[in-house]
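Re: weekly structure request thread

Next one in the queue (72 aa):
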Amino acid sequence: MSNQEVTALLKDAQAFWFRWRDNVPDFSDVDKWDVVLKEANQIADDHGGSVHVTDLLVWFCTELHERSKERS
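Done, posted below.
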């Protein structure tokens, strides 16, 4: 990936994180989790879906999931 591609990925991933970090769906809210995962998958698709891209997004989604479980 070029520097510009990495920067674009990080901007999109950061925007995803900022959108959901303080608005974590309830653990049982399947519809809301579908939205979260759809957004993450779209970012992965937009940035080529390489292992580094998906690892970053999986980490964010896992962190959101853990936070959701802690609240329930």
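The mean pLDDT is 95. The helical segments are 3-20, 30-46, 51-71.
Next request, please.
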